């Protein structure tokens, strides 16, 4: 998809492509590097270069990005003595090693502008400002070290730090936000740069879809330009898809559409794309004056002003702004009358004629539909995870509850916690009394509870509050009872003070209440741990392995709506060239694979929020223009066409809660 996306960006009037460098993607285990396929950084930069754009390489290597563990590889957490993003020897050594390797690779391909290449900027660290308040002096020394280390790599192009007010010279401190006109760099000789102009916002399972009106985004950009801004990067211009287990959070959706001008599927979203394209054309008409003078500001009314730039020889550029949130304004500028819509800027490249107004949208709105593709699922099969045999293979045992990531090292989202409890035959609930209840306290992110092979329900945290508790009456029998808790990580945290130390899994308490003797604490007894699912161990997702397993076939395959079930089916690639998606509305929660490639996590969590009307005017925040209330946050899952062959594509679903595979369909994304 890269070349098409980059060409669309160029056609939209962009000059530079920003990209993160994902450490966990490029160094999945210490000293083992991956620059293949989607992680082929050199090919990506070459593609940008061939299309004729520049690159801003945001090495980080902390990137946040709503990405698993903020881009850090999980193995880094287990380097002895390490403390992330601080003045810490082991961390600095690892960070420097990776940064050097990326810079060296770029130099070998002569990619820096100083070598005649496309990279004009690089970023070290990422949004460290909020952490600095918590860390104090140790934070400052880390920032100074990171700056010195980066500058010492001699790339010949400037380095930036975003959201880092005390970035030491020669590092340029830059702004991220919905608006950055208020921002000034920490030295007058540094350019005013906006490294992330947020075009929308991310989504989390169970949340609404935030939309940012393009009138407001364009107004934010002109406000920045008229105050002397020199560089704006849209975050995102194309957000794409968090394939595999790359989504962070926890609970960040697989879709990272971000309400961007180019949508998740690579299609231009109107009117956002064309309105910004017209804005970029208008700004470029003003370029010579913008780069050769500071603005002269004149008040035109209580809420209105003019910013005027001139490049000598009578050239004159004006930005006329109205900051009122409701009322249009009539103003007089250079003895001419102008009407400014509410919350907008008009651009006059000759100080006379308006070529663009941020609130006047000409482009038509895209009508997007998910339509049947004509491809049907065939040869459906089912494989049930057998809970009764858990604890038989590849397990560890320990007294007490273990933290999940310490056990899994993030090799799987899933970890079984299994124990048994003896119930005396004399317990009164065995003779018609009230069932005892089982409570489970978890540090995150989700749990499915089974007792004696019977499913008793689930509980989930949220991105803001990962901790949660499960409590339900359970039917125990006299003698031995087997409690099996499937704990699930739904994307590791990507932001927050020392998020690498945050716990995941069942680390609180597990207890039975309502026994004759009161409560029974199970937390300190012997537990068996099993990493991952049987289907993962059998590699059911692989086209070669899936065929060697005895799947339940025919109509029986579609009948079971039980939890912890694997499904497989085949489909042929839809005709045409429209983007393809999987409609999983009939499923519950789990993961999906096509031809062995992971589409990502799915979850039909219904969106709760406030989806009222949306007025473009007034300061935008992510809660302002919500959509999708009462619908699943993400119903459709992007299937890249390049993953498909003409016939016989293998779809594998792992369903945690119980879904109806007979209603899953392959759809096409059509735009009118």
TrEMBL record:
All copies of domain Glycoside hydrolase 35 catalytic, residue ranges: 1-282
GO molecular function: beta-galactosidase activity
One GO term describing the cellular component: apoplast
Superkingdom of the source species: Eukaryota
Assigned EC number: 3.2.1.23
UniProt xrefs under InterPro entries: BetaGal_gal-bd (IPR048913), Galactose-bd-like_sf (IPR008979), GH (IPR017853), GHD (IPR041392), Gly_Hdrlase_35_cat (IPR031330), Glyco_hydro_35_CS (IPR019801), Glycoside_Hdrlase_35 (IPR001944)
Span of domain Beta-galactosidase galactose-binding: 564-649
Keyword list, A-Z: Apoplast, Glycosidase, Hydrolase, Secreted, Signal
Any Pfam family hit: Glyco_hydro_35
Family: Belongs to the glycosyl hydrolase 35 family.
Protein name (database record): Beta-galactosidase
Organism: Raphanus sativus
Lineage, opening ranks: Eukaryota, Viridiplantae, Streptophyta, Embryophyta, Tracheophyta
């Amino acid at each position: 998809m890269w070349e098409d996306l980059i060409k669309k960006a160029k056609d939209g009037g962009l000059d530079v492509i920003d990209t993160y460098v994902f450490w966990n993607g490029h160094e999945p285990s210490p000293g083992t590097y991956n620059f293949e396929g989607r992680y082929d950084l050199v090919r990506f930069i070459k593609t940008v270069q061939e299309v004729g754009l520049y690159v801003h390489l945001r090495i980080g290597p902390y990137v946040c990005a709503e990405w698993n563990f903020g881009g850090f590889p999980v193995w880094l957490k287990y380097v002895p003595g390490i403390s992330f993003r601080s003045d810490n020897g082991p961390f600095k050594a690892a960070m420097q090693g990776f940064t050097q390797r990326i810079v060296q690779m770029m130099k070998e391909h002569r990619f820096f502008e100083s070598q005649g290449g496309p990279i004009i900027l690089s970023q070290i660290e990422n949004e460290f400002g909020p952490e600095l308040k918590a860390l104090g002096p140790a934070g400052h020394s880390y920032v100074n070290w990171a700056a010195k280390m980066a500058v010492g790599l001699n790339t010949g192009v400037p380095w930036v730090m975003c959201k880092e007010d005390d970035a030491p010279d020669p590092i340029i401190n830059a702004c991220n936000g919905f608006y950055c006109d208020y921002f000034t760099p920490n030295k007058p000789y540094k350019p005013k740069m906006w490294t992330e102009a947020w075009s929308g916002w991310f989504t989390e399972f169970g949340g609404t879809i935030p939309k940012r009106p393009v009138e407001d985004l364009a107004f934010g950009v002109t406000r920045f330009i008229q105050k002397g801004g020199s560089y704006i990067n849209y975050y995102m211009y194309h957000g794409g898809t968090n394939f595999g287990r790359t989504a962070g959070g926890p609970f960040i959706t697989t879709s990272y559409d971000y309400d961007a001008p180019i949508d998740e599927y690579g299609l231009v979203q109107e009117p956002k794309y064309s309105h910004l394209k017209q804005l970029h054309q208008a700004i470029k008409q003003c370029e010579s004056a913008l780069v050769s003078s500071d603005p002269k500001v004149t008040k035109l009314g209580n809420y209105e002003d003019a910013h005027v730039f001139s490049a000598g020889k009578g050239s004159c550029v004006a930005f006329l702004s109205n900051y009122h949130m409701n009322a249009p304004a009539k103003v007089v500028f250079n003895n001419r009358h102008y009407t400014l819509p509410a919350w907008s800027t008009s651009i006059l490249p000759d100080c006379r004629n308006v070529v663009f107004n941020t609130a006047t949208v000409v482009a038509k709105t895209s009508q997007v539909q998910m339509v049947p593709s004509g491809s049907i699922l065939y040869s459906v099969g089912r494989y049930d995870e057998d809970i009764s045999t858990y604890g038989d293979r590849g397990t560890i045992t320990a007294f007490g509850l273990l933290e999940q990531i310490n056990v899994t090292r993030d090799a799987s989202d899933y970890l079984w916690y299994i124990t048994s409890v003896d119930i005396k035959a004399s317990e009164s609930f065995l003779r018609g009394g009230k069932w005892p209840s089982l409570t489970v306290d978890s540090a995150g992110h989700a749990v499915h509870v089974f007792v004696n092979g019977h499913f008793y329900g689930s509980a989930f945290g949220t991105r803001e509050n990962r901790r949660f508790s499960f409590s339900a009456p359970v039917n125990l029998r006299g003698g031995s009872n087997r409690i099996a808790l499937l704990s699930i990580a739904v994307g590791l945290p990507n932001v927050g003070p020392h998020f690498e130390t945050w716990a995941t899994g069942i680390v609180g308490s597990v207890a039975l209440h309502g026994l004759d003797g009161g409560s029974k604490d199970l937390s300190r007894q012997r537990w068996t741990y099993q990493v991952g699912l049987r289907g993962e161990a059998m590699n059911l997702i692989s086209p070669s392995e899936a065929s060697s397993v005895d799947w339940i076939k025919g109509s029986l395959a579609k009948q079971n709506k039980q939890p912890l079930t694997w499904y497989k089916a085949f489909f042929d690639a839809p005709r045409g060239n429209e983007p393809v998606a999987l409609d999983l509305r009939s499923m519950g929660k789990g993961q999906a694979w096509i031809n062995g490639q992971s589409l990502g996590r799915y979850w039909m969590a219904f969106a709760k929020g406030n989806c009222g009307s949306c007025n473009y005017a007034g300061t935008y925040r992510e809660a302002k223009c919500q959509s999708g209330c009462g619908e699943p946050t993400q119903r459709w899952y992007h299937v890249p066409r390049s993953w498909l062959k003409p016939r016989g594509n293998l779809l594998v679903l792992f369903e945690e809660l119980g879904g109806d595979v007979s209603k899953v369909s392959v759809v096409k994304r059509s735009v009118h």
